[in-house]
Amino acid sequence: MLFAIAFRNTWRNRARSIIIMMSVAIGLFSGIAVMALYNGLLRSRVRTVIEAETGHIQLHAANFKKDYDPALFLHNGINVLQQVRSLPDVKTAAPRSITHGMLSTPTGSSGVQVNGVDPETEYRVSKLNRKIIEGQGFSAAKTNEIVVGKKLAGKMKLKPGAKVVLTFTDTTGNIVAGAFRVAAIYQSNNAPLDEKNVYVTMNGLNYLLGIGNQFHEITLLLQKDDNVKQIQNTLQQKLPGYQVESWKEISPETELMVNTIDEYSFIILVIIMLALAFGIVNTMFMAILERTREIGMMIALGMNRVRLFTLILLETLILTLAGAPIGLLIAWALTAYYNKTGLNLSILGKDMLSSFGYSTIVYPEFPWHRLAAVFILVMGTALLSCLLPAAKALRLQPVAALQR
Amino acid sequence: MNNTVIDAHNISRVYNPETIPVYAINNVHLHLEKGEFTALVGPSGSGKTTLLNLIGGLDKPDSGHIIIGGTDITSLRANELINFRLHNIGFVFQSFNLIPVLTARENVEFIMLLQKVKRKERDKRVIQLFKQIGLEDKMNNRPVQLSGGQQQRVAVARALASKPQFVLADEPTANLDSAAAFNLLDIMAKLNKEENTTFIFSTHDQRVIERAKRVITLVDGKITADTAAVPLTNHKLIVT
Ligand SMILES: Nc1ncnc2c1ncn2[C@@H]1O[C@H](COP(=O)(O)OP(=O)(O)OP(=O)(O)O)[C@@H](O)[C@H]1O
Ligand SMILES: [Mg+2]
């Protein structure tokens, strides 16, 4: 009977009930939307890191990354490359020669990391060709071409066809310099990296460095994301003297982001819940004030406080449970839709997002793993916020309430 | 056998004791026996509502004791008092008696559900009560679908549903036209006769007063007259 009263009471003031239902729905929806968006951003950031920046795993000579000494090339590089390419879990592997040096034009210079790549395999691993926004990319015959990032090109006023000089030290410590012609300008989602990395052919760079057909790095793309750790361990066992790193170690800021983003979304959730609580407290207060006489009458007849409290709790619960599926459904439908089509966040400013390493198209993902937590949070908020109005009802004195 | 239902000793209720004290009830003694049909009369502001609230356990006296069926209700704690009301006192208010979202039948059942009466017994009692108030055909109507008189009759049925020691009604006919008022009084009188239910009700209406077996007059918080209107029982005729 209490349930019947509670249920029918929720229909008495439809406008108000709909307000509570909608607040719950909106609360739940926004909570999930924030998480879905974060999930999507995170996922796309991780994908960008893996597919365009670091690959899944990188191999270097043990001390190479300390100060990028060109003499510390990968021992037996060609054999190792063939070995890892033959592993079933490895999709592709690309070799790179790497050195740090200076890029100069008649008007200025800038420190860069010079990546000597084999264009064909590089295109498959870091998708460099897809990032090209101006120019044609490497042509097969030439060894003195360079591909520079948009940020650097802007800073140095470079156009395709422009001439630059790269200066660095070779394996013996002599300073060497080479003239290169800009073949293309690329833009990735990560502006700071664009400014630092330039690409030349491995042949061209190796000739200047004097390392023959050796190279410093192998970048691996795996078939799947989830067994990186395991393959990393296997490789490390097979190649004891080498440095084997996964993307989490190469790009620790991405790993950190994965871990902190949950906290951010939690803070936003709490803010949303506070707003929801405020709405519920107000509406339930109104609901109780409106029914003062009726509640007074029920207390007079012999309805005790436990039952009265149960009644108010039930009313809130019914409204919340009615609102929750609506919010969930909208959230699910919208995330499913935008997960397919992508949500364009470029209104926020393309440059702003890419300067943090994000792509502007986000594919929100429904946070199934957080669903229970969000649901409990919303229900908990609803129940907590009915405590105050309920306390008000419980304090009613029947005589005073009936006289109103 | 002790037939005492209400035994109120020396009760007083003072409003605003700090500022301008109002002695709404001033040293009143009241004794009510099983099966009485008593009207409480008096001018407006004489303390009728206050007295009924006190003996109904809705309000507490500032002094004195109220003993109902052997229990001193002035010593009960708030929760015990709620439970005491549920099992011992039937209420009919002047207006706004019924829970609007429940049907007439559910309103009557509600009180028995609070008492945890078994379903079978509930059904039996509901049918019986609606027969007695002559509203069998309106059992499934919501209060808004009933006239004022019909609503008050349902309230009487609800008051009786809990099998209380007595039924207390504060101006139950105040919002009714005279036909409905008489009809309600008829039903109350019939229940008094058939079920020996004890009634105490306040009223302004002379024609309602005439139906009472005993009339208690209050003036300024004091009982000024206590008459057996139809001197059938052992009530003494007291005129002061
Ligand atoms: N809550 C209150 N605070 C202060 N004074 C009150 C309060 N309730 C009643 N009184 C006063 O107590 C006295 C008795 O009031 P009560 O309501 O019992 O009279 P009544 O006989 O029921 O009157 P009526 O016939 O108008 O219903 C009145 O003087 C009234 O003003
Ligand atoms: Mg009154």
How does this structure look, described?
Chain B: It comes from Niastella caeni. Chain B: GO terms for molecular function: ATP binding; ATP hydrolysis activity; transmembrane transporter activity. Chain B: Keywords: ATP-binding, Nucleotide-binding, Transport. The complex is a heterodimer of chains A (404) and B (240). The radius of gyration of chain A is 31 Å and the shape is elongated. Chain A has two domains: 193 residues, no CATH class; 178 residues, no CATH class. Chain A has a six-stranded mixed β-barrel, surrounded by four helices. In chain A, strands 11-12 form a two-stranded antiparallel sheet. Chain A is an alpha+beta fold and 404 residues long. Chain B is of the alpha/beta class and 240 residues long. Chain B has a single domain, classed as 3-Layer(aba) Sandwich (Rossmann fold). Helices cover 33% and strands 27% of the residues of chain B. Chain B has seven helices and eleven strands. In chain B, α6 links the parallel β7 and β8. Classes of the chains: A alpha+beta (404), B alpha/beta (240). Chains A and B meet through α1, α13 and α18 of A and α2 and α3 of B. The complex binds adenosine-5'-triphosphate and magnesium ion. Adenosine-5'-triphosphate binds next to β2 and α1 of chain B.
Q: For the largest interface in this structure, which chains are involved and how many residues does each contribute?
A: A-B, 22 and 26 residues
User: Which percent bin holds the helix content of chain A?
Assistant: 55-70%
Low-confidence parts of chain A, pLDDT < 50 over ≥5 residues? none
Task: Indicate how many domains the architecture of chain A comprises.
Answer: 2
In this structure, how is the largest beta sheet of chain A organized? Answer: 6 strands, mixed, barrel
Instruction: Give me the CATH architecture of chain B, please.
Output: 3-Layer(aba) Sandwich
Q: Poorly predicted ranges of chain B (pLDDT <50, ≥5 residues)?
A: 230-240
**Main sheet record of chain B:** 7 strands, mixed
Distance between the termini of chain A: 26 Å
Strand order of the largest sheet of chain B: 6-7-8-3-9-10-11
Which structural class is indicated by helix and strand composition of chain B? alpha/beta
Tell me the number of helical segments of chain B per DSSP (H or I, 4 or more residues long).
7
Average pLDDT over all residues of chain A: 88
Distance between the termini of chain B: 31 Å
Estimated radius of gyration of chain A: 31 Å
